[in-house]
Amino acid sequence: MTSITAPLKALPARQPILFLVVAATVWLMLYQALSPASEALVAAFPVDHASHLGGALQFFLYDTPKVLLLLTGVVFVMGMVNSYFTPERTRALLAGRTEGVANVMAASLGIVTPFCSCSAVPLFIGFVQAGVPLGVTFSFLISAPMVNEVALTLLFGMFGWKVALLYLGMGLSVAIVAGWIIGRLRMESYLEDWVRDMPKMSAQFDDTGLTLADRIQGGFSAVREIVGKVWPYILAGIAIGAGIHGYVPEDFMASFMGKDAWWSVPLAVLIGVPMYTNAAGVIPIVQALLAKGAALGTVLAFMMSVIALSLPEMIILRKVLKLRLIATFTGVVAAGILLVGYVFNAVL
Questions:
Q1: Which candidate among 22, 80, 290, 348 keeps its CA 20 to 30 Å from the CA of 96?
Q2: Which pLDDT score, from 0 to 100, does residue 2 have?
């Protein structure tokens, strides 16, 4: 990435803008070519397009570049945006705020910050040291992986703006309310002792005055770091989705993930918790499940539980939280996800 972005720093201000315009144009042209290109690739294989294998191949060859293009574009843009929201600035914005307002701010900041379960512990420690209330910290930790820019963009690209907007609203509601409830329970005593005893630090940040070229470089760095980490999950998720799309009988999923099965939402959450993937990996599976008759609320509850309540994240958080606080966090968030699932199934 340095070979591309380093020369940008030495160019006049208009040159980075021109670079962004050209890059956006190329991205759009590639995106428009996805459908005919995938159809041509499938036609090159000696398989019947109407067969199970043909359907699976079409799904895989179309969705793989589509998801990777969407992910690369969004991560690049958000890498530039995230240069304004460093961990230090995020802590400073949340420190000293009253509960309620701070929960809303924390959940909203979670949308535009690229933090995942692997960074949960250092972020949690930093927030506690900066004096951010426990409930506010949880609102951020719930929102950041669950209602992030990747999930929203992929939902928009695959299901349209209505589904993406509904997911945004319900996901933020879960993060805000769950964090507020945890804050009201006053469970600071269930932090690990070494975390409570850490000295408080200033919640200040330095504004480095980055140039547009610097922010473009940040976008490339984000693509290298995030896309470089998640592409195996994307391929795995799309491969599973392709198998479901090509081989699972029509309406099969409706029998146990449809609206008529009241127990489908709790079952989806229970199935999702032990899994470990991210929005980019699970959304192609969601798309395939919906195509086979699963209810939208049920599959979104499954998606939320995979992203926000993954077992690996609970194991990571065990380093800083006692079991009672982890159980409370899991129970409150799971209740919110169940509510989201039932609401989606009722209104859509």
A1: 80
A2: 43
